[in-house]
Specification:
This protein is an alpha+beta fold. The protein has helices at residues 4-11, 18-23, 147-150, 167-174, 211-217, 295-303, 325-330, 340-349, 367-384, 417-431, and strands spanning 27-32, 42-47, 50-56, 62-66, 80-82, 85-87, 94-96, 101-103, 124-127, 130-134, 145-146, 156-163, 222-227, 231-239, 244-253, 257-261, 266-276, 279-288, 306-307, 312-313, 403-404, 408-413. Helix content is 21%, strand content 27%. A hairpin with a 4-residue loop joins strand 7 and strand 8 (101-103). The structure holds FE2/S2 (inorganic) cluster and fe (ii) ion (FE2).
């Protein structure tokens, strides 16, 4: 458990907060490219507690500026999309994508006042279906060479979903390898042939054991954590009865993302982005090392569970997450259906909007959570000392040299599990024909 003060320090991310200052040194997903695909590409974006508007101008370029008009505060989400920016419908002030006011049609013709009006604007970059924003000081960092950014757009599918809770508890579920044996337990194994686009429904590594069976039967993983250039590698070992060991490698990507295996074909890179202190979006990039991603199928699967335009889950606290006691007795551990996203959503939302960490009791399976909080605290301290270079991926390591990260499930001999996961990762990368997934040295 930690003090209330420390809980506030780690969780609050608005302007002028400690964790907020750390997060503002990184790129964050601001919207899906899909959200800008309609007739009028203008969407409200609330990120790290700041209310903004994202738009694609008539040149096809993106702008992300303050949502409130700097004249008298009208909502620029209703702005007229003209030329290279947005025009406020109230008095016609026009802002370009850098936030500069370029015209005030109601002011005297010779007025130069507009040259002195510049609203907040943040750099944005579109990568494989996600628009990323940088809201911090100075030059934004380079993007790491992760698989989700290196793969061509045909091999990456992006989606998002709303969780009504603080970003940190959402991220902490992703660095907790023990919960998969319980929260996502299925008492019956589905045919792995039906596993496309779903997590934990494939067979384990190169065996014919369904992942669901493996997770159900081996509930006490041995978990270890290694610090890396990008954050942490989390290793969960399940020692099987036949002398073999199942190895699951997942990652924390500093500050608020994770990278995990989904199936033999795909990995998931997922950000848990603060909307404000009590709400967050998960943004996922599903990256295929094999065939191009069937985006239509993946999208349809997820749209069955989410409502547009805010990507709010259809099962939520207002309908008890679809909880069915009979199902809980007979087929799933939660009684909340087969979509594991709903299970995770219940796990992160049910402690309350911001988990009261003064009352928690962390166990040995929470080792990655403990280490992550230490990393975040160290980053906060380093920033206070003005030592930006000590932050992960803001240091002297060139982000372009950071590959991977390895995210996989494999089975090897108990004594040689390290070689097993590097070998299976190398094989998967070599077999990837459609894009160059090989790395000289996986990190
Ligand atoms: S409030 Fe926007 S132009 Fe007046
Ligand atoms: Fe989960």
């Amino acid at each position: 458990m930690i003090s209330q003060k420390m809980n506030d320090t780690l969780t609050l991310t608005g302007p002028d907060t400690d964790a907020g200052a750390v997060l503002r040194h990184y790129w964050h997903p601001a919207a899906l490219s899909d959200e800008l695909a309609g007739e009028r590409p203008v969407v409200p974006v609330t990120l790290l507690g700041e209310q903004l508007v994202l738009f694609r101008d008539t040149d096809g370029k993106l702008g992300l500026i303050d949502r409130a008009c700097p004249h008298r505060g009208a909502d620029l989400c209703y702005g007229r999309l003209e030329d290279n920016g947005l025009r406020c419908p109230f008095h016609g002030w026009h802002f370009n994508r850098d936030g500069q006011c370029v015209e005030q049609p109601g002011e005297p013709a010779d007025s130069k006042m507009h040259t002195r009006i510049k609203t907040t604007s943040y750099p944005v970059v579109e990568k494989n279906g996600i628009v990323f924003a940088y809201m911090g000081p100075g030059e934004p960092p380079a993007f790491p060479n992760f698989d989700c950014f290196r793969a061509p757009q045909t091999h990456v599918f992006a989606f998002k979903g709303l969780w009504q809770c603080n970003w940190l508890q959402a991220m902490e579920v992703g660095i907790d390898p023990a919960h998969a044996s319980f929260l996502h337990r299925f008492l019956e194994d589905e045919d792995p042939q039906d596993s496309y686009g779903k997590q934990f429904r494939d067979t384990a590594a190169d065996t014919d054991i369904p992942m669901t069976q493996l997770l159900r039967e081996y509930t006490r993983p041995e978990i270890s954590v290694e610090e890396t250039t990008y954050g942490m590698r989390i290793i969960a070992l399940r020692h099987l009865d036949n002398g073999k060991t199942h190895v699951r490698i997942t990652n924390q990507i500093f500050p608020e993302a994770i990278s995990i295996p989904m199936s033999r074909e795909m990995i998931i890179t997922q950000w848990h982005v603060p909307i404000d202190d009590e709400n967050c979006y998960w943004y996922s990039m599903f990256t295929s090392f094999d065939k191009p991603v069937d985006k239509q199928r993946m999208r349809e699967q997820r749209l069955q569970e989410h409502r547009l335009p805010d990507y709010a889950p259809i099962k939520n606290r207002h309908n008890n997450y679809g909880f069915n006691p009979q199902e809980q007795r007979q087929s799933t551990y939660t009684g909340m259906g087969l979509d594991i996203n709903v299970h995770d959503q219940w796990a992160v939302e049910s402690p309350g909007r911001i988990t009261d960490r003064t009352k928690e009791h962390l166990g040995s399976t929470d080792v990655a959570i403990i280490k992550y909080r230490r990393m975040l605290r160290a980053a906060i301290e380093n920033l206070k000392q003005g030592n930006t270079g000590a932050l992960p991926m803001r240091s002297n390591t060139d982000p372009a040299t950071i590959y991977g990260p390895i995210s996989n499930d494999t089975i090897g001999d108990r004594e040689h599990w390290q070689q097993a996961f590097t070998r299976s990762d190398t094989e998967r990368r070599r077999a990837c024909k459609d894009w160059d997934a090989c790395v000289a040295q996986s990190s």
